[in-house]
Amino acid sequence: MKSLGSIRRDFAPWNDPNAKPYIQFDNVTKKFGDFTAVNNLSLTIFEREFFALLGASGCGKSTLLRMLAGFEEPTAGRILLDGQDLRGIPPYRRPVNMMFQSYALFPHMTVENNIAFGLKQDGMPKPEIASRVAEMLKLVKLEQFAKRKPHQLSGGQRQRVALARSVAKRPKVLLLDEPLGALDKKLREETQFELMDLQQNLGLTFVVVTHDQEEAMTMADRIAIIDKGEVMQVATPAEVYEAPGSRFVAGFVGNVNMFEGKIARGEAGSASIDAGNGITIRTDNAGTAGAGTAVTFAIRPEKIKVSSKKPAEAVNAIEGEVYDIAYLGDMTVYHVRLDDGQVVRASTMNAARITEDPLSWNDRAWVSFRPDAGVVLTR
Amino acid sequence: MSSAAVTTASASPASDAGKSILARLGAAFVGRLVIIIPYVWLLFFFLIPFVIVFKISLSQTAIAIPPYTPALDFSGGISGFLAQLKQLSLDNYTWLTQDALYFNAYVTSVIIAAVSTVLTLLVGYPIAYGMARAPATIRPTLLMLVILPFWTSFLIRVYAWIGILKPEGLLNQLLLATGVIHQPLIILNTYTAIFIGIVYSYLPFMVLPLYSALEKMDYSLIEAAKDLGCPPTSAFWKITFPLSLPGVIAGCLLVFIPAVGEFVIPDLLGGSQTLMIGKTLWNEFFANRDWPVSSAVAVILLLLLIVPIMLFQRAQARAQEMDR
């Protein structure tokens, strides 16, 4: 498959076999009593990478972060940072800093003193502290709020103070626990790009925990999808979306249509899938799955075209009935019920103001897609 | 009044404007009433008694019922009343300054109360901290254990300490039996016994405000401090302690203020030679039947306590501001 790589063109250390890993989780297990939060997990993160741990709440992603910060010790396995085993090193001696989900700003200190807190701990000389704090305040555009207390700030401003405080010490790694979780949608989108710029400018390694896939897709170089304490897939956002490794990943990230079936005939990556009820799907992305293998064919809604007549050139075209239409402004989402009862979701960009082929509820319609539009999943 | 508004409204549904005005007046009246009640309470149970005590402190002792003169009455008309007022004087206050006994009693009381308060804080802080950090499921039980001693009479609990602290008491028996000491310790009838009594009796007043301050503190603040390079001990002094300060101030004043005027504990545990203002007051009132002088002692005590009470209120106002 072509160009499913990094968004940053020259940055892909994970493809370089000689690249030295910066953070390494080696068969890490963490148990809380009977509950296994992290199960024999291995993961490699590279220097200057913006790495996202994505998963539903309770999947163990926060535990991973807390183990890296030193608030929890692994039950088994080890964590290496720049070649050094972190076991037994207390949080206050680790060269990592964390931005807390609750921000955890010290309510009795001014913005200035919050940012200076870590620097004072290091015994940095006063003039240097002052200039570093000023630099940080400028970075997060809060110069005029230096003397305020946290309760006198808005949610977005508090988030910036927390960020400034956590990068002030120039940590080797910055850990961000749901950094944008408490912000409203608009502010969240703006802040995503600011975080990316900040990471680029400071040249730090970021590990961010989030349950918001859009956030992870926007910001991260690579995403690890975590479920029940295990890594499901580690890949670039484009790979995760376009070439999910399993049904779980395909279903977890974005919307997807899935057809269960069997490979009827296959050669050199191309295959016909018998999806039952007379539906045959032809695909170019069958990989190594041989004839007779039970597979799932997964296809994203935006790769499906909906039309009132059967498109002449289409390799894959299935007939059904329009069951639901959602007009979202920039795009329209169609739910088409196929004749076997399965509902297919298809989305169309509203590139023109007036649709040439208007469809309405209960119209007969054809869903069609190209042979390279979907992926075949065996797991 | 509010019920009147309702009847008027239902009787003449046509006059909508009149109804709303009356209803609003009613609501305003109810609102006022809620505010007035505590002031009325203060007037009857604080201000009026204080004025009476203050008036007695300006009177002269007399062998009469009541045992002072003048006993203000209106039998002599306005002029008679004014003549009585002229008999009031500050003689009793002058008397207090002339006898070193009173000054010493005040000073000793303040010192004993201050030392006891510090001791109570030292004992109470770890207890409150432990409670606040305990698993949420057992916190109600721990709170109950702190409050439980209140279910027994205060007097009986202080009496019990006599049995523990006396030379042949439980503590000495235990220490002698285990061989820690060979001579019984003399604790009863010393200042040590007073400190023990005050710390024991007032501990819940210290623990509860401290607990409430510590319990609502976000533990991630400590984690943030550690994350930024702060070892645990230092994190306590830089984060936990400053944030619990409103609780510390509230607890200290709740112990200090009643401890200054404490009478029962010094009387039962401190023996006859201890000089505290509460005991002096008791002696003037019951032994000497000198109501005017004891009233003067009480008025001075109140003035002495107004400063810490005002500090307490300011601390509370500040704590409320921080909560917002």
Gist?
The complex is a heterodimer of chains A (379) and B (324). Chain A contains 8 helices and 20 strands.
Q: Can you tell me about this structure?
A:
The complex is a heterodimer of chains A (379) and B (324). Chain A is α+β, with helices and mostly antiparallel strands and 379 residues long. Chain A has two domains: 13-95 and 171-250, Rossmann fold, CATH 3.40.50; 256-377, OB fold (Dihydrolipoamide Acetyltransferase, E2P). Chain A is 22% helix and 33% strand. Chain A has a six-stranded mixed beta sheet, with helices on both faces. In chain A, a hairpin with a 5-residue loop joins strand 12 and strand 13 (280-283). Chain B has 324 residues and is mostly helical. Chain B folds into two domains: 2-86, no CATH class; 91-323, Orthogonal Bundle (MetI-like fold), CATH 1.10.3720. Chain B is 76% helix and 1% strand. Chain B has helices at residues 2-11, 16-57, 77-86, 91-98, 100-133, 139-147, 154-165, 170-177, 191-215, 220-227, 232-260, 264-269, 277-287, 291-323; strands at residues 60-61, 68-69. In chain B, strands 1-2 form a two-stranded antiparallel ribbon. In chain B, a hairpin with a 6-residue loop joins strand 1 and strand 2. Chain A: InterPro entries: AAA+_ATPase, ABC_SmlMolc_Importer, ABC_transporter-like_ATP-bd, ABC_transporter-like_CS, Mo/tungstate-bd_C_term_dom, NA-bd_OB-fold, P-loop_NTPase, PotA-like. Chain A: The complex is composed of two ATP-binding proteins (PotA), two transmembrane proteins (PotB and PotC) and a solute-binding protein (PotD). Chain A: It is an enzyme of class 7 (translocase). Chain A: Belongs to the ABC transporter superfamily. Spermidine/putrescine importer (TC 3.A.1.11.1) family.
